C-alpha cells in the first residue's frame, strides 16, 4: 500500500495538495479523533501507514471553499457525483466506513470525514432528503436538480452527456475532525 495520500489532480488551475501537509494533517486528525489513541505503545500501525484519499468539493477553488464551509458548519452531510466520472477516472466508489480528507480551495487539508452510506440511483430518482442533506441553496430537490444538472453537464470527465437516468453516486458522511484555518496545524 502506498504511503502517499491519493491526491487527484485538480479539475482546474487550483493548487495541488502537498503530500507532507496531508500526512501531517492525518497524524493530527487521527490523534484528535482518537482513531489510534496509543501510538506510543504500539508503534506504527496500518492506520498510520495508509493515509485516506484527499480531495475537494466542486470544480473550482471558490466552490471548494464554499462547500467546505457548509461541511464545517454541519450543514452539508451528503454529496453526489456522476458514477460515469468515477468510472472514467478509475476511482473506486466510496464505501461506508471509509475516511477521506477534505481540502479547501487552496489544497490545504481542513476536515476528516467518514462515509456513512453510499447509494447509486438514477439522477431523476434522487430523493428530497438527499437534496436537503447536501446543505446547498434552499435545500429543495428542485434546486438540487437544477444545480447538479448544470454541474454534471459542465464538468463531466467521462465524455458522456447528461441524462435524467444517468447513475449518480449519493454519499452521506459525518465530520470526524474539523480544523480551524487560524489554528492549523496544531492549535
Automatic annotation (TrEMBL):
> Can you name this protein?
Uncharacterized protein YhfF
Q: Where is the ASCH domain?
A: 55-177
Question: Organism source for this protein?
Answer: Auraticoccus monumenti
Q: Which InterPro entries has this protein been placed in?
A: ASCH_domain (IPR007374), DUF984 (IPR009326), PUA-like_sf (IPR015947)
Q: Which domain of life is it from?
A: Bacteria
Amino acid at each position: 500500500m502506498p504511503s502517499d495520500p491519493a491526491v487527484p489532480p485538480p479539475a482546474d488551475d487550483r493548487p495541488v495538495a502537498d503530500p507532507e501537509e496531508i500526512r501531517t494533517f492525518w497524524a493530527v486528525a487521527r490523534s484528535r479523533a482518537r482513531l489510534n489513541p496509543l501510538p506510543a505503545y504500539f508503534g506504527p500501525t496500518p492506520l498510520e501507514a495508509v493515509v485516506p484519499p484527499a480531495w475537494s468539493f466542486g470544480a473550482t477553488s471558490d466552490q471548494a471553499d464554499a462547500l467546505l464551509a457548509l461541511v464545517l458548519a454541519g450543514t452539508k452531510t451528503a454529496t453526489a457525483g456522476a458514477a460515469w466520472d468515477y468510472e472514467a477516472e478509475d476511482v473506486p466508489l466510496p464505501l461506508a466506513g471509509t475516511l477521506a480528507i477534505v481540502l479547501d480551495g487552496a489544497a490545504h487539508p481542513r476536515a476528516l470525514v467518514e462515509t456513512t452510506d453510499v447509494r447509486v440511483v438514477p439522477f431523476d430518482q434522487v430523493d428530497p432528503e438527499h437534496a436537503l442533506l447536501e446543505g446547498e441553496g434552499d435545500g429543495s430537490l428542485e434546486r438540487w436538480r437544477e444545480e447538479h444538472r448544470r454541474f454534471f453537464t459542465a464538468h463531466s470527465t467521462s465524455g458522456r452527456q447528461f441524462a435524467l437516468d444517468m447513475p449518480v453516486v449519493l454519499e452521506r458522511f459525518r465530520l470526524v475532525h474539523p480544523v480551524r484555518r487560524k489554528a492549523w496545524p496544531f492549535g
